[in-house]
């Protein structure tokens, strides 16, 4: 069996662009992968065309060899776009390997260490407690969710006194905890909007009283010593990693004892192959893995197989999609978990290429926040 061609499809999931990759082989077996659209979105198809020529004619089941080749053929370490493209290739190669063997990918990775994969739902906003209770009850009744992720900001960070925002957040979470079922868990994603570490400490203290599941990415990821200092001052689990790219960056974070939970993205770091290396490093540091996954049904499928085999996996991010018509049979939550599909080879999900033939791309880009004085801030 050898690789004969690729196809790329720029699509959307809900209101975000997503790029899908199909790798074709001489035996008629094809595999699918998903890129993270960092932007510019349309840079990915020609990049994948370029990378295809480095793997054309190769046996797609030699996943480790081909991913190493793609990384090592780069003159400089690949960055965001390069690793996003390599991630999709890695996914597609594993899909082919599983289909060729007649096995789900998780069996090729050593077999499952858990029977199902726990998930949490991203709410991502900070609604009034009573409204949030209605949302969480509905999600619990429909899908069995008992874990949710919120924003810790009740208003714009730069309008008014910071200490007042911190107090409001603490009071608000206290009310949520007061009226919610005791088994519900709430995480908070600060989205790297805080520049000063002491402010991140203050906000963490406000939510600490009510036992958050974790406190995610209050700071930018670049300066590792700041994460070491931050973690040393917190009494809540500190999570980060969606903006880190490879095992070397994660090793720096872990060696500095800068996180309790890491959140690599399987569509960012270079795919399953690199994700497992990162997770193994975390395991050696007594750190768990809660993958970043705001992606589409295909990326969710890939994450489920990773989570099934990884001993230090904790919980997976998943928000049910409203619009992803190309996924014929997406994994959906049952009792707050994703069930494995032992009778389905590869990723266990079917892609409808007829739907992909219709252009469904939507443009999206981050909006830059402006402070009251007109200067920019992290969004």
UniProtKB/TrEMBL annotation:
Span of domain Mandelate racemase/muconate lactonizing enzyme C-terminal: 129-237
Alphabetical UniProt keywords: Lyase
Listed InterPro entries: DgoD-like, Enolase-like_C_sf, Enolase-like_N, Enolase_C-like, Galactarate_dehydratase_3, Mandel_Rmase/mucon_lact_enz_CS, Mandelate_racemase_C, Mandelate_racemase_N_dom
Signal peptide: none
Any single GO BP term: amino acid catabolic process
PROSITE patterns reported for this sequence: MR_MLE_1 (PS00908)
A Gene Ontology molecular function term of the record: lyase activity
Name of protein: Galactonate dehydratase
Stored Pfam families: MR_MLE_C, MR_MLE_N
């Amino acid at each position: 069996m050898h690789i004969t061609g690729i196809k790329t499809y720029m699509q959307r999931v809900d209101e975000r662009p997503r790029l899908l990759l199909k790798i074709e082989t001489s035996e008629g077996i094809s595999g699918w992968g998903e890129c993270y659209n960092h932007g510019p979105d349309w840079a990915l198809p020609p990049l994948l065309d370029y990378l295809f020529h480095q793997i054309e004619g190769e046996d797609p089941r030699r996943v480790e060899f081909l991913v190493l080749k793609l990384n090592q053929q780069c003159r400089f370490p690949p960055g965001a776009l390069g690793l996003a493209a390599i991630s999709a290739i890695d996914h597609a190669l594993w899909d082919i390997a599983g289909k060729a063997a007649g096995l789900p990918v998780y069996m090729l990775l050593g077999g499952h260490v858990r029977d199902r994969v726990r998930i949490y739902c991203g709410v991502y906003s900070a609604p009034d407690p009573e409204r949030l209770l209605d949302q969480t009850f509905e999600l619990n009744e429909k899908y069995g969710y008992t874990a949710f992720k919120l924003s810790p900001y009740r208003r714009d960070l730069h309008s008014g006194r910071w200490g007042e925002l911190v107090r409001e957040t603490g009071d608000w979470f206290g009310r949520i905890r007061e009226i919610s079922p005791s088994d519900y868990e709430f995480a908070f994603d600060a989205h790297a909007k805080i520049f000063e570490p002491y402010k991140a400490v203050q906000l963490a203290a406000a939510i600490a009283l009510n036992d958050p599941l974790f406190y995610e990415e209050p700071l930018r990821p670049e300066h590792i010593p700041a994460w070491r200092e931050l973690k040393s001052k917190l009494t809540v689990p500190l999570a980060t990693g969606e903006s880190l790219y490879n095992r070397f960056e994660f090793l720096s974070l872990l060696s500095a004892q800068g996180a309790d939970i890491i959140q690599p993205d399987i569509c960012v770091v270079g795919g399953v192959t690199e994700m497992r290396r990162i997770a193994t490093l975390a395991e050696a540091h007594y750190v768990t893995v809660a993958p970043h996954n705001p992606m589409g049904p295909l990326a969710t499928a890939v994450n489920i197989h990773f989570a099934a085999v990884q001993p230090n996996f904790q919980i997976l991010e998943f928000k049910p999609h409203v619009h992803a018509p190309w996924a014929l049979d997406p994994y959906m939550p049952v009792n707050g978990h994703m069930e494995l599909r032992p009778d389905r080879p590869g990723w266990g999900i079917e892609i409808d290429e007829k739907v992909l033939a219709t252009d469904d791309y939507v443009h999206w880009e981050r909006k830059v926040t402006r402070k009251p004085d007109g200067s920019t801030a992290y969004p």
